[in-house]
Each structure stands twice: as structure tokens, then as C-alpha cells.
């Protein structure tokens, strides 16, 4: 059996263009230098959750790339050890950082994020991963932004703008002295799925969540994270992460474990899902089959933004099993149906 032969997560997010591997001051500088120019604006970041070992970064993003398949990032203008209250003095950015949004109006957008700085070098890397991406961004505006598209509530100069993460446009203006930033991509280690059978469960039938690697013929020590006799209604709760050998690198560098929903007939009578059993159905939300994906780390800022935009994060997430391999809304994990309308 070959399931999801090409797992595609978050279409258009398979790569990330980043013109800088190191933190640069560029158009911004941290308050620690003591040489703040009169034109600098102090931003105050209120960071929620555990901050030890985390770095706060501000990364330039070409907001026009939100309309394309590949987000374009530039300099990391700030990279500092995160504290519950972190203040940064930002100067106006260089001219080449600005993007024209209307006649006489240009702006530069910077994405605030937290990454787990394992080697304490202050530089994000895919091996470390991101634990949070903010929805309120520092945005510098040159010119009068009144009526300019995508700059709702902005004023000339520095702003703290609540941004629509799917397109980078402003939703509302915030306070530069109180910018919220939390562990939005932190691991969610518990998940519950529930639903019913639309038909009477066949004799000797059972429900399992099976490693995608195992279904594709690879050797894993434990094939399933759940395997129990069928009942209706049903509810499944998982606590903790899948076994280590369920994980593999997916499209876009995502390191994750995929667990496929399987309703089966225990043909060989051994009480566990195996190759000799009859695979009957999936679990469906409507007609869309769903399984689970456990994201161990979010390796790129691009992927972190896309996940935030769809309401997903680290740890357990719903995943479509219809060949698209897309993250799905976790609310769909309740009210699932097993039966003929959700075939293999």
C-alpha cells in the first residue's frame, strides 16, 4: 500500500528565499548600543510563555511576495536574547527596504519571531526551529498612508500593525510600546478525535492510527499510536509525541510524523493492525479523509507564517489524506465519520 506518496504541506511553501544568514543591523539597531539616533522609535515586546533559550528576531519580508508562491525574506535586522519584556530602538530603514504601496507612499515590513537558539549564536537555523511568529509587526511608512491599501490605521514613520498573515495587509494599528509575541508554534502534545460509524461496525473490526512510514513498507518498531476494537460513538485521545522512528523529513524541510486513520477488519485475529488485515475505511470530515501530523519543529520562518495563517502550530495537527497532504482545521477532528462514504 502506498499512502500520500508525495506529501505536500502548505502549497507554495516548499522553499524560502532569504538573502541573509546572519543578523544585521541594517535599518534597525537594538537599544543595547546606547547610540540611538533621535529618529529612533522604541518598540516594547511583551513576550508570553517560556523565554529561556529563545531569541527574538525581526526579519524583513517583501510584502509583495505574499501574492506569489514563494515568500521573499531579507536581512534579520535584530537578533537578541528574548526576555519577558524586550525593548528595541529601531531607526528608519534603508531606502531599498521600502516597497511602494501607493503613489507617494512606501513601506517596509518586519516579521517578529521567536526561535529556539540551541547553539546560542543568535542566528536562526532549520535545526533549531521557530517557536512563535507574531501577528503584530513593526512597519515603517514613508509618506502619508491615509487611504493606502494594506496600511489600515498606519501613520507616517514606525507603526505596530496587526497583520493578516495570509496576505501581509494591515488589519488594525497597535501600540509600539506593547507588541504581543508568544509561543504560537509551541508543541501541542495532546489531541482528541471523536465521531461515529455511519454503519454498524463489522465483526472483528477495529480503528487504528498507523504510521505513514509503516503503511509505505518501512520498518518501524511500533506500527500504530492507537489501535482498539471498534465502538460507536468513539473517541480517541493521544498524549505525547509519536515514536522517534515515525518521524521523517517532509516537503519543505518539515520534520514530522504522519499518522493515517485506518478502520479495518482484524482478518488474522491477532488483535493488531497488520498487512494481512482488511483495510476498510478512513475517518472523514464530510467526504475529506483526515489523519494526524505531529510537527517536531518548524524549520523556516516562511513555514511558520503559513502555519500561523491556517491556525496550526507545533505538535499534533489535523491533516488531509486526500492526496493533497494539507494542514486542516483542528475543529474538524470532532464529528468525524467512519463508513462507506469514507473509503480507502
Mean pLDDT comes to: 87
Q: What class do helices, strands and sheet pairing give?
A: mainly beta
Radius of gyration: 23 Å
- The end-to-end span amounts to 11 Å
- Largest sheet: number of strands, sense, barrel closure: 11 strands, mixed
Query: Which ranges are low-confidence, i.e. pLDDT below 50, for 5 or more consecutive residues?
Result: 1-38
SSE ordering: EEEEEEEEEEEEEEHEEEEEEHEEE
The share of residues in helices is under 10%
Strand percentage lies at: 35-45%
Walk me through what this model shows:
The structure is a single chain. With 344 residues, the chain is mostly beta strands. It has 2 domains: 17-181, no CATH class; 190-343, no CATH class. It is 4% helix and 43% strand. It contains 2 helices and 23 strands. It has helices at 212-215, 301-309; strands spanning 17-18, 41-47, 54-61, 72-81, 85-90, 99-102, 105-116, 130-133, 136-142, 157-163, 170-173, 179-181, 190-197, 205-211, 224-229, 234-239, 247-249, 255-265, 278-285, 288-297, 315-320, 327-328, 336-343. The strands form 3 sheets. Strands 13, 14, 15, 16, 17, 18, 19, 20, 21, 22 and 23 form an 11-stranded mixed β-sheet that branches. Strands 1, 3, 4, 6, 7, 8, 9, 10 and 11 form a 9-stranded mixed β-sheet that branches. A 3-stranded mixed β-sheet has the order 5-2-12, with no helix packed on it. Strand 21 and strand 22 (327-328) form a beta hairpin. The protein starts with 16 loop residues before the first strand and ends with a strand. Mean pLDDT is 87; it is low at 1-38.
Amino acid at each position: 500500500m502506498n499512502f500520500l506518496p508525495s506529501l505536500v504541506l502548505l502549497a507554495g511553501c516548499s522553499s524560502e528565499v532569504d538573502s541573509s544568514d546572519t543578523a544585521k543591523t541594517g535599518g534597525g539597531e537594538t537599544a543595547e548600543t546606547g547610540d540611538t539616533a533621535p529618529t529612533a522609535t522604541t518598540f516594547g515586546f511583551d513576550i508570553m510563555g517560556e523565554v529561556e533559550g529563545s531569541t527574538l528576531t525581526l526579519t524583513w519580508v517583501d510584502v509583495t511576495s505574499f501574492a506569489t508562491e514563494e515568500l521573499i525574506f531579507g536581512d534579520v535586522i535584530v537578533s537578541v536574547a528574548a526576555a519577558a519584556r524586550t525593548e528595541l530602538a529601531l531607526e528608519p530603514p534603508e531606502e531599498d527596504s521600502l516597497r511602494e504601496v501607493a503613489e507617494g507612499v512606501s513601506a517596509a515590513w518586519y516579521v517578529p519571531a521567536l526561535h529556539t537558539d540551541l547553539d546560542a549564536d543568535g542566528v536562526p537555523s532549520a535545526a533549531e526551529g521557530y517557536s512563535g511568529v507574531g501577528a503584530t509587526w513593526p512597519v515603517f511608512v514613508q509618506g502619508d498612508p491615509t487611504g493606502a491599501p494594506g496600511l489600515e490605521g498606519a501613520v507616517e514613520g514606525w507603526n505596530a500593525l496587526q497583520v493578516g498573515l495570509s496576505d501581509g495587509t494591515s488589519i488594525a494599528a497597535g501600540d509600539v510600546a506593547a507588541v504581543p509575541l508568544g509561543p504560537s508554534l509551541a508543541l501541542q502534545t495532546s489531541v482528541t478525535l471523536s465521531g461515529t460509524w455511519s454503519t454498524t461496525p463489522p465483526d472483528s473490526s477495529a480503528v487504528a492510527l498507523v504510521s505513514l512510514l509503516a503503511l509505505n513498507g518501512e520498518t518501524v518498531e511500533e506500527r500504530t499510536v492507537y489501535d482498539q476494537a471498534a465502538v460507536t460513538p468513539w473517541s480517541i485521545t493521544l498524549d505525547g509525541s509519536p515514536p522517534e522512528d515515525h518521524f521523517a523529513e517532509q516537503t519543505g524541510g518539515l520534520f514530522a510524523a504522519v499518522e493515517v486513520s485506518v478502520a479495518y477488519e482484524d482478518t488474522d485475529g491477532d488483535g493488531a493492525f497488520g498487512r494481512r488485515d482488511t483495510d476498510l475505511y478512513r475517518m472523514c470530515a464530510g467526504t475529506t479523509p483526515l489523519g494526524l501530523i505531529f510537527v517536531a519543529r518548524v524549520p523556516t520562518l516562511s513555514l511558520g507564517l503559513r502555519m500561523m495563517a491556517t491556525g496550526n502550530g507545533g505538535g499534533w495537527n489535523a491533516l488531509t489524506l486526500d492526496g493533497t497532504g494539507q494542514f486542516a482545521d483542528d475543529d474538524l477532528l470532532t464529528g468525524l465519520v467512519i463508513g462507506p462514504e469514507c473509503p480507502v
